[in-house]
Design brief:
single chain; globular; alpha+beta; 328 residues; 4-stranded antiparallel sheet
Length: 328
Amino acid sequence: MVRTLRCFDQVVAPSNLWAAWREFERGKRRRPDVAAFGLDAERHVLALAGALNAGTWRPAGYRLLRVRDPKRRLVSAAPVRDRVVHRALYRVVAPWWDRSFIAHSYACIEGRGAHRALLTFRRRCRRYGYVLGLDMARYFYRIDRERLRGLLSRRLPEPGIRRLVDRILESGSGLYRRPEVVSWLGWSGPGEPGRGLPIGNLTSQWWANVYLDGLDHHVCRELRVAYQRYMDDVHLFGDDPGELLRWRDEVAEWLQRERGLELKDPEARPISTRGAVSYLGYRVTPHRMWLGPKARGRLPAHLRRRLRDPARAGQVVRSFAAAWVFGG
């Protein structure tokens, strides 16, 4: 039986929108667009509540940011008003939905994250002789919005919530078919119609987890293999390389059939856990972890950006501490 949630009134309540705004503004108050919204935040929040209740809210366009980190990515920045709506939806629905995720899905889930994923990865490297890493080709760019809409509507049947989800989903339609975007990303042709989520939305990160939740349950219940996932980075563990290759092919078949996705490297091979394995920017052995060369190269620029904002100084210190401990 599929569990459903009816929560439209809770999502669009002024109190929830206000809480979403306060969460969103944290650490961003010096940004001009956030400061402008904050000057008359009460009026903006009440206007948002009225538009959402009346069904007249429409997402505005995105500001596109071209990023090299080191590969090219396109970050889509929604206006503050829209991001408050995204967070209002997320803060009501995600805690309820996330309870159905497996224990070893780590990205964008409260109380988990990269450090817990790294510790689990190292523990499994101690237990198993081989690990097989898989990731999806152009994952965010190739998510099928119609399939995602079906996954969401099964558990969120209220007309108001479905209308809100549809408008957020379609706010990025056509984004990856624009000539300037295709040129920047270095593709040979435009993205497929009906596919892609804007990278940068809180809802996109959460929905990207929802989209692969079915794979998590398939691998854990049907294949019964030691497994963990961080967004579209999937890792399988075992002691028999041949068995890992069979699981790789089953994962590839499921992704193509159920989600319309392909593996970036369909011929990926298991590697021994006795040596150093790259994972989430770290090099990991059964007994030690340290920052990998790409992460070390990006660290100075990352820290300079963070230190420009005094509100983020604590986060910088924690990042340094984590890197020191893991590198132990």
